[in-house]
Amino acid sequence: MSTGNFENWAGNISEIGAVYPFVGSETFLAIAGVIFWLWWHVKQNKMEKEDIEKVMKKYGNKESLMKIVSQEDPKNP
Fold it and tell me: Are 22 and 29 in contact (CB under 8 A)?
């Protein structure tokens, strides 16, 4: 990848111009990144709630599990 034809590397940086693609799109990309990040958290939260509901439906809620565990605990007759 070439950044241009330079005869003198000691020149002024403002004369060189853009050295990376999509100059000026930083704000849009930052906003898009934040929106994606927030969407991902909402989606992940929804998926985890669905998984927890499936497990609770299969095994019961926290209180019923604690009751089962306490009945099987040899220290707690």
Answer: yes
